[in-house]
Amino acid sequence: MEKKIILTALCFGFVSIVLGAFGAHALKKILDADQLSSFEVGVRYMMYHALFLLFVGTTQLLLPEQKTIVYYLTVLGTLFFSVSIFLLSTSKATGMSFKYLGPVTPIGGLLLIISWSMVFYYVITKKA
């Protein structure tokens, strides 16, 4: 499972760098300041969670089953949060309406909060 977590973290990191560069160069010309700012939030949170997953995948502070739970919460949360922001912030530029994704973003955020909270709980309750 550790390899899967680390590979996912690397994919999230790669995608966030590519999308960050895309936003800074290509999207800067077609999105307004608010849309670009929202897009950047999605990129930033994807990178934060790439780093978080690197920690989860390499730490000895979590049991394998705990890593699995945190992994799935983090992946779902990141996809719901960041991808919904990417689609919502670029909807005017693409001419596609993604308004129905509005409720998905906070659900993703909640999943991310839960994943971090669980890691905190697992670490603080770990017996030495």
From TrEMBL:
Key words of the record: Membrane, Transmembrane, Transmembrane helix
GO terms for cellular component: plasma membrane
Keyword RNA-binding attached: no
Lipid bilayer topology: Multi-pass membrane protein
This protein's record includes keyword Translocase: no
Compartments reported by the entry: Membrane
Pfam families the UniProt entry points to: DUF423
InterPro entries per UniProt: DUF423
Main location: membrane
Transmembrane regions listed in the UniProt entry: 45-63, 70-88, 100-124
Superkingdom of origin organism: Bacteria
Annotated family: Belongs to the UPF0382 family.
Protein's name in the database: DUF423 domain-containing protein
Classification lineage: Bacteria, Pseudomonadati, Bacteroidota, Flavobacteriia, Flavobacteriales
